[in-house]
Each structure stands twice: as structure tokens, then as C-alpha cells.
Amino acid sequence: MSEYVLTVEKLMMHFGGIKALSDVSLKVKRNSIFALIGPNGAGKTTVFNCLTGFYKATGGRIELQTRGMKTNVIKLLGEPFQPTDFVSLRSFASRLYYKMFGGTHLVNRAGLARTFQNIRLFREMSVVENLLVAQHMWVNRNMVAGILNTRGYRQAEEDALNTAFYWLEVVDLVDCANRLAGELSYGQQRRLEIARAMCTRPQVICLDEPAAGLNPQETEALSGMIRLLRDEHDMTIVLIEHDMGMVMGISDHIVVLDHGNVIAEGGPEQIRNDPKVIAAYLGADEEELA
Ligand SMILES: Nc1ncnc2c1ncn2[C@@H]1O[C@H](COP(=O)(O)OP(=O)(O)OP(=O)(O)O)[C@@H](O)[C@H]1O
Ligand SMILES: [Mg+2]
Fold first, then answer.
1. Which end of the chain is more exposed for a tag (fewer CB within 10 A), N or C?
2. Are 205 and 113 in contact (CB under 8 A)?
3. Closest Cα to atom 5, ligand 1: which residue?
4. What is the rounded distance in angstroms from the CA atom of residue 285 to the CA atom of residue 230?
């Protein structure tokens, strides 16, 4: 396996006439904290959406090296839908499957998980239920085994519960296990999203603005948690974040996007002093890089 867990080459994402990403290349080292930064609208979330299979990129290459294998993410998502697909039953069926289960499911199974800029939890389910649902692909779903309540089935259920509580402990939410997810504070919901992503047993986790809306103490705790994922759980973390104090404090490597292009990359010191980066941020929001 290469030292890079994720390689992105010449990624392009166009929405009709809008070029959200023109040419994005980046390499993420295994077992590191990698930050993707840039002003609002730079294309950061779009990169995540392409990496995680939410969007199928219109061009370029994304290669994951996880679970001991190479995955070509764009190929994994299959061909885009063509009206002529109605003619062929088989391609229509695979299209239907894709519509139901989505590309994210496939990429997640390959070893990459994410959290969302706008929190997406099952608000009417309990905290622990949110974590059990996330593990559906690891649990034996054989209906007969379920009805007969076989030993294997019970064991799988117990494992899922243990995994859920393990991650609740890490994100400091054990006390909230039976509360409804929608009742949690904003900071707690953000931590639950991380626990949920970790319950899918990924090797790479993409966090989209995990510190948004957190107070300084919560942000500090979050930084500790992200370091812990890297140092104790062999994880690679890809982070989108506007809190520059946090980004500069925890990142091993930073890539800066502006208008759908990479404008700089390097370590925190290098990025902090890069005139192109300062200019991009000054054009957008004078306070962000302060
Ligand atoms: N589904 C879509 N359809 C059309 N345009 C889109 C779509 N998704 C993103 N865009 C456009 O792509 C550009 C990049 O958006 P993106 O959300 O990736 O930015 P961002 O860097 O995450 O910004 P922020 O820091 O505000 O979250 C924007 O101009 C946005 O309007
Ligand atoms: Mg975004």
C-alpha cells in the first residue's frame, strides 16, 4: 500500500455552466490530519461530495487505498444515467439500485466516512439508535437468522451495541445514549455525527466544518478528539474548517482552494505566510485569517 490513502487528480465538477471545481489535485498521507481550507464558495464541500460519492465528478480521478485495496471512486459509482438505459433492463435495474442505496454507501463500504456541514442525524431516534443504524452493513441482516434469533445474530447485535458505546465514550456522550438526537445541543450533535461516522469502521473520515457553532472549549476538546483518532485509532482525517486557530494547530498538511482551484499547499507555517492565501481570504472575509 502506498503512503497515500487518498489521491485526487485533476478533479472537475461542473453544474451546467457553473464550474464548482476546475482542476483539483491533492494527496492525503495515511494516518495524518489533512485540512482543506478556502473562502466561502471555494468548492470545499463539493470536493467532499465527490470523494464520498454524493456527486459523481465530471472529470478527473479519485483513488482510495483502504482496507488493503485500491478503489477507483468515480468508476465505483457507475455510469451516469442515460435515457436509453430504459431499453436495457439490466442497466435500468442497476440504476434503480444506485438510486435507492446511493453512491455514498459504496464509498463508505470501501472505507471512507463523512460528517456534514449541515448536521444530518435521525432527530427522532435516540442517540444510540443513530449509531446502530449506521452499522447496518456490518450486522447480519439475514431475516431468517433474525426470526430464529440465532446465536450469530445475537452476537452481531451485541457487537453493534458495544461499538456504539465505545464511540459514545470517545465523544463523551454516554450519558445521552437514550436521549433523542434532536434534543442534543449543537456541539453534542456534531460529536454524535463523528461517532456515527466512526461506527461504520472507516479508515478515512472527512469532517465538514466540525467546529462550526462550537465555543472555544468545545473546539479545544474537538481538536483533542481528532488527534486521538489519528494517534490511537490509525485514522486519516480530512478536515474542512474555517476556524484557522484549529486548522493551524492540528493539521499536518493543508491545501487551499479558491474558485475551484488549488492555490497553495504546505504545512501550517507555510500556508499562514503565503501571500496568495492571504489575498484569497482578504478578498472574502478579513477576520478569518486573523
Ligand atoms: N448542486 C449544486 N448545483 C449548483 N451549484 C453548486 C452545487 N453545489 C455547489 N455548487 C456551487 O459550487 C460552488 C462551491 O460550493 P461549495 O459548497 O463547495 O463551497 P464551500 O467551499 O464548501 O463553501 P463554504 O465555506 O461556504 O461551505 C458554489 O458556487 C456553489 O454555489
Ligand atoms: Mg462548504
1. C
2. yes
3. 15
4. 31
- Nearest ligand by distance to the CA of 42: 1
15 lines ligand 1 (CB under 6 A): yes
Q: Contact, 206 vs 112, CB < 8 A?
A: yes
Helix segments in the chain, DSSP class H: 44-51, 73-76, 89-110, 127-133, 143-148, 151-170, 186-199, 216-233, 244-250, 268-272, 275-284
* 20 within ligand 1 shell (Cβ under 6 A): yes
Domains identified in the chain and CATH numbers: 4-111+202-289 (3.40.50.300), 121-199 (no CATH)
Q: How far is CA 96 from the centre of its chain?
A: 24
The x, y and z cell numbers of residue 103, run together, are 453512491
**How far does the centroid of ligand 1 lie from the alpha carbon of residue 220, in Å?**
28
Task: Give the global pTM.
Answer: 0.88
Here the cell at position 188 is: 453534542
Model confidence over 203-251: pLDDT tens digits? 999 999 999 999 999 999 999 999 999 999 999 999 999 999 999 999 9
